[in-house]
Amino acid sequence: MSTVSMTVNGKAVSADVEDRTLLVDYIREHLRLTGTHVGCDTSQCGTCVVHVDGKAVKSCTMLAAAAEGAEVTTIEGVANGDLHPMQRAFNDNHGLQCGFCTPGMIMSGIDMVNRYKAEGRELDETAIRHELEGNICRCTGYHNIVKSIAQAASEM
Amino acid sequence: MHSLNYHKASNASEAARLLSGTEDGKFLAGGQTLIPAMKTRLAAPSDLVDVSGAAELRGINVSGREVTIGAATTHAEVAANGELRNVCPSICDMAANIGDPAVRHRGTIGGSIANNDPAADYPAAMLALGATIKTVSREIAADDFFVGLFETALYDDELITSIGFTAPAAGAYAKFPNPASRYAMCGVFVAKGDGGVRVGVTGAGADGAFRAGDFEAALDGEFSAEALDGLSVRAEEMLSDIHGDGVYRANLVSVMARRAVAAAN
Lengths: 156, 265
Fold this sequence. Notes:
The structure holds 2 protein chains of 2 kinds. Chain A is α+β, with helices and mostly antiparallel strands. Chain A is 35% helix and 16% strand. Chain A folds into 2 domains: 2-77, Ubiquitin-like (UB roll) (Roll), CATH 3.10.20.30; 85-155, [2Fe-2S]-binding domain (DNA polymerase, domain 1, Orthogonal Bundle), CATH 1.10.150. Chain A contains 5 helices and 5 strands. Chain A starts with a strand and ends with a helix. Chain B is built from 11 helices and 14 strands. By secondary structure, chain B is an alpha+beta fold. Chain B is globular and about 55 Å long. At the A-B interface, strand 4 and helix 3 of A face strand 1, helix 2 and helix 6 of B.
């Protein structure tokens, strides 16, 4: 057991956890923030994506202990009063059906828009599809997800 | 995942000391292969010594054409480094296509080559670039480093600290990803350096990454895709599995090599 401390959605949190605890289990089971999902548990589907120190990572493939001292943002932390532009864009464009992949899609979407803006690169449709390599959706066929991210990219 | 003890190292010597005190410990870098392997219990180390936060193992240094990449540098950092792109864009482009964005934010160059997955991208680049793998105790040429499937010349508990190479005058990587896993069914890295052309192949060889010697000789004569006409690797030395047999993979090696040479020109 180790004491793990980090900042999650702006709040300092701390808990005693087994060293093998995955970050996603810490977020879901200890903090009860269940918006971050576990789809495949094999690092492929992307429903568990959160931001660690501003970068999208798969929280099922990182130990909670490795996030000691980090700033973590989950889907619960992106809205600031109103919905985040990425959330609103998914709403506007019907970018989801069952919704299971949506938290990961939104966290990956925000990450890619931030990165492309910082690097001064254009996030066109081809780039969005390439960037979504690690996020699987079994309902939508991706078209409306791509449209949602493109809309948010023009608003963020 | 079995229970384990987690340790965080702030530098290479502390990492070595922490690991030496464990029963069956392993170094943890980005964990993008090791943690999935532990979840399926293919790996069950008693301890993990996390080196991802060790500042001396991170970062990219470019001095003229000499490049040094710290072992704990992530794929995303390699892909986005402007100085490195100026002298060796091929390795940046290769890193930008490993896994997916979230994996690239965690996965490291040192972790990739230490694992030596036969379908990993970096081993082909290390062979083609004639890289030197530096560890806590010695320097190993890439040609001597990759021994077989998931096997390297590293001793047990030997930590990679950095990778060094001279940027080639031209180079490119062409990859044929498996449509489902996106791992390389075949990836060919071609580099035209001062010592001649080197061709590193991953994903296809039955013994892991290898150099295509016949291709190199032909490209030394003329650095064009046409120079490879009529050349192929031996199908019986290629991987044969449900994704493709040896003949199919041997053909992929020829096609990817041509694409890489065309892209490098």
